[in-house]
Amino acid sequence: LLLSDPPKSDELEVSIFGPGKGEAIAVHLGGGDWITVDSCRSQSKGTHSILDYFEAIGVNIEQQLKVVVGTHAHDDHIAGLGQLYESAKNAIFVCSAAAASEEFLVTAEADKSVAAGLRSSVRREYLRILDEVERRGRERSGFAPLKRAVESLPLWTRSSTPGRAAAEIVALSPSHVAVTRAQRDLATSALAAPNGTKRFANRDPNEFAVALWVSVGSQRILLGADLLSGPAGCGWQAVLANVSVSGKAGIFKVPHHGSITSHHDGVWAEMLEVNPVALIAPFRGGRKHLPSPADLARICALTNSGYVTASPERIAQRESTRRISASLGGVASNVRDPWGTPGHVRARKGKDDAPWHVEMFGPAMDLATALKSK
Amino acid sequence: VTTTTTTTTSRNVPSDQSLAGVTADRDTGALFLRKLEQARIEHQRQAVPLLVTSGSDLTLSTVTPIVESARDTESGSTAQWWHRRGKGADNEAISGVQKWEGRILELDETIFSAELSPLSEEGPVLVADFDVRLLLPEADVSVGDVIYVTARLVERERGMPPSKTVSVRLRRMGKWSEDEIDMIKRRAHDRWARLADFID
What we know:
By secondary structure, chain A is α/β, with parallel strands linked by helices. Chain A has 11 helices and 17 strands. The mean pLDDT of chain A is 91.
């Protein structure tokens, strides 16, 4: 198949892109309906992975993209999310209940104030989306385009019609405990630093990320966002304790780039089929890359159908990066473009009893190959 | 109170003599001088590649003291340092400057990583690691703080090869005023009230 070949109407598809600035997922629910989760932008080319892909396969974004999800406010997940949502003129926007709160908005407005005159920003993308939510809501009477995800909440449903299976998207997280914790922390983090110093937000929103359970007919898809395993009452611990789902997923977007901090044995035992397709976008922005060799080994032991959109290893640097590295030599070390060219793993499934058919584009590879290259 | 720094090139650790040009008064100035002295002592104790100087054209009365660290990258020696401002020392001229704004992404006891966006020309956004001691003696550094990195190409006397100097400066954002806090909370409240109608 070519990259530009669209899925058939009755085919499911899960595509994962990354690591540009961000990672992104596009899911075809059959019948031409799509949802997207997070966003990815190529830093080197300035292109938008999902918008480009949809254009390549002929998706009418205005009509066919039903739901845009921002799982959490980390900028390795939301780069370009505002642009994507603005293009999806009939889509609802889903974010964590903790991120759609007055407490979060205080941090966003504080960041906006801090960012005046700076290139940096943390919450800018979210404010752009919320501006669009308001505009959309004002223009269409009775349309509520913002959905606040919290555990067990159905976010979108579709009834079955001839040739199109019923579909449902349910939020697995954040838990009510996580939302309460997040709102408390947000309320005290932005403006009430002990010395009142201005700075950008520094809360780890992985705690209140939105993990999703997608059902289409008898098929299940688990999209893990960056949800952590805990702490108590939060994360995967809470999902397993509080959320009831039917069936097991045959495909899994592994949470938090395969990190051990998001691993929970119960997820693999109770929510996933044996040997599921596991999809990972690596994270190379930090000093410790994810997945680590230990992460790769752990996941390879759990499934032999694991794929990663690019090598987690440091990539070859472009000439422009090498020049800057030379300019900063002696003071800065490890000068790097951690994003490189985003890869793409595409998994499609036709009939219920057919296996997932997985294709890799660009620097994508299977996990066994990634592990061997370590 | 204007900070006056020497314009004489010094290739040694900041000396008492080089600090003598710094004038300041009241508490702010005294604090600044203490920080300079603390950095000088730290440098001597650890042979840390540091030079602490005031930022050029800044005044202590309007800006919290800025810590700038610079290193002569041509020599690679940790013992050779510049201490100067503006157009450089006698017989020197800055012939090229590259600047980046950075946001600190990770920070531990020894290293911080920052995402650098170019300010002086088009170029890639990059991530780089820095020794956290470059920001000493600032104790209150945190993830999310903003730095400026400047690389200067300095032409020297005829026959001498140009040298490069790289500086790292922490941007001090100041403190929230009561008015700012009230305004931010009001904006957030108003936005939340408007959004409430559009939440399903």
